[in-house]
Amino acid sequence: MEFEGETEIDRLPIDLLANIFVLFNSFTDLAQARSVCKKWKQGVKVSLACRHNLSFGGWKMDDDSAARIVSHAYNLKNLGIPRSRWSCQITDAGLLRISSARCVSNLTSLSLWGLTGITDEGVVQLISRTTSLKHLNVGGTFITDESLFAISRSCPNLETIVLWSCRHVTESGLVCLVGKCTKLKSINLWGTRVPVNCPTNLLIINPALQIKV
Hints:
Layout: H1 14-21, H2 27-34, H3 38-50, E1 53-55, H4 63-72, E2 78-80, H5 92-98, E3 109-111, H6 120-127, E4 135-137, H7 145-154, E5 160-162, H8 171-180, E6 186-188, H9 198-205, E7 210-212
Helix pairs in contact: 1-3, 2-3, 4-5, 5-6, 6-7, 7-8, 8-9
């Protein structure tokens, strides 16, 4: 039975709507779709739960919007929250909220590249939940050895890490990281302020490690 004023798209089941919304790359478009009606709002929610990859690169996001989207992405494996030309305004408060999302323990890839508004406080809280992580990019942030110690404790499967221009990490943190993350294959130390003999010392611990300096 067709109701007066009902359109073809209004009769689509939520699962089919969700499959359409999964194709949306614009978070602005998703927000607009979400506001159309309750059915579309549910469709957007289901579409987020279907995603394995999510990146906020190129979008102006704040703590509230980023945390809300991630909280619905139950099956997420790869999460990117890099700095963008629109200045992604993510802080420790956002990372703390994201850390409670259901998907975090299943993440295999995480990028926080260039987020100057975050510190060890938010990174440590988030990293403590990412026990499946294999690839991590925290380049261009102000993290210290405190974050490296947390990574060493929580990420036994880590294979690659980018510490590009992390000028507050020291050799002590790196030795701990390489010593405990035994599956580590690659580490990017370009722009750090570690001693010139640090790469050699790391290779003593893990001779197969690829080090970019």
